[in-house]
Amino acid sequence: MFEIETHGLEKKFGNFTAVNAIDLEVKKGEIFGFLGPNGAGKTTTIKMLTTLATPTSGTAKIAGFDVATQPAKVRSRIGVVPQTFSLFEELSPMENLWYIGKLNEIPEKEIESKSIELLKAVTLYDKRDLPSGGFSGGMKQRLSLAASLLHEPNILFMDEPTTGLDPQSRIAMRDITRDLNRKGVTIIYTTHDMDEAEKLCDRIAIMDHGNIIAIGTADELKRKVSKHEIAEIDAPDASKETVDALRKLPFIHSVEKDGSRLVCEVSDGSEMFSKLSDFFKKRQQQVNEIRIRKLSLEDVFIKLTKKDLRE
Ligand SMILES: Nc1ncnc2c1ncn2[C@@H]1O[C@H](COP(=O)(O)OP(=O)(O)O)[C@@H](O)[C@H]1O
Ligand SMILES: [Mg+2]
């Protein structure tokens, strides 16, 4: 059985479709990512899956329970780290967790021991008695994470938990997320950061304009859009004629301009570097750098969304 299963899950606001009939299956023990730009529909999807918003159509089951007809059962199994969270700024981490524990009707003697364990796990134990209002964004987000885990959920929803954090805090948040997952928690994680999705998630659903446009592991998504490698050529003065001639080379499959760089899909092959530098040398066009690299998720996203627009 799947931990999460949706059929035609849809959310409309008036005539506007924020989430367009998505079908989804998330396996137990996965770190499953929703990757997409602002406005793609990630938060609206998370809200429906966590019973905070009512679908306008379709169904969703979480741990076997229906979000529409069994919301209390669903809520007992899930933890939520919302995109915008609220904690009591004048209260310390221990006090915040105490309050949330009482709200969740956790026995008092368990709240304290569980709070200590969780604050150690999110590296806030040293700060357990300080007012949380003065904490950094990363510390507040880790406290929000601890709060979401107090009732020991099997499934954790994290909505852009690293957005706006400094690099150290982002790395810490991802490490804690991996640890939780190793302990058996299924994780649903949204991000607009393609690199982060690739680093963290077992499988990724790419979302755009309310649609899931592709689902798979990062490798599967890449193979789906191209079997080629990428050459990034920094050629600030490349003329239109040069770009057109480049396009016609047999080992070049596509060329996109990105500022001063030409981003090309190229056949695999060790001589690619010298073939490209010879080409520009013959045409007496300046090249600052040629970099051959594997396809990134960003390339995948750009290719898929362009296709989306044409259809
Ligand atoms: N309560 C609402 N009323 C009207 N439109 C909304 C509401 N919530 C979200 N939207 C719209 O739905 C789209 C998806 O939003 P959201 O799910 O927040 O995207 P994401 O989390 O991927 O940035 C956006 O265009 C947003 O403006
Ligand atoms: Mg959002």
Give the count of structural domains.
2
CATH topology tier name of the largest domain: Rossmann fold
Largest sheet descriptor:
6 strands, mixed
Number of helices: 11
Q: Roughly what is the average pLDDT, rounded to an integer?
A: 93
What percent of residues adopt helix (DSSP H or I)?
25-40%
The H-level CATH homologous superfamily of the largest domain, spelled out, is P-loop containing nucleotide triphosphate hydrolases
The topology string of helices and strands comes to EEEHEEHEHHHEHEHEEHEHEEHEH
**Distance between termini?**
35 Å
Q: Which compounds are bound in this model?
A: adenosine-5'-diphosphate, magnesium ion
Write a concise synopsis of the structure shown.
This protein is an alpha/beta fold and 311 residues long. The protein is built from eleven helices and 14 strands. It has two domains: 4-222, P-loop containing nucleotide triphosphate hydrolases (Rossmann fold, 3-Layer(aba) Sandwich), CATH 3.40.50; 227-294, Alpha-Beta Plaits (2-Layer Sandwich), CATH 3.30.70.
Architecture overview:
With 311 residues, the chain is of the alpha/beta class. The chain has 2 domains: 4-222, Rossmann fold (3-Layer(aba) Sandwich); 227-294, Alpha-Beta Plaits (2-Layer Sandwich). Helices cover 38% and strands 27% of the residues. It has helices spanning 42-49, 71-77, 93-103, 108-121, 137-149, 167-182, 194-200, 218-225, 240-248, 272-282, 297-310; strands spanning 4-13, 16-26, 31-35, 57-62, 65-66, 78-81, 155-159, 186-191, 203-208, 211-216, 229-234, 252-258, 261-266, 289-293. It has a 6-stranded mixed beta sheet with strand order 6-7-8-3-9-10, with helices on both faces. Strand 4 (57-62) and strand 5 (65-66) form a beta hairpin. Helix 3 (93-103) crosses helix 4 (108-121). The longest helix has 16 residues, at 167-182. The chain is elongated and about 80 Å long. The mean pLDDT is 93. Bound molecules: adenosine-5'-diphosphate (ADP) and magnesium ion. Residues 42-43, 83, 159-160 line the site of magnesium ion (MG).
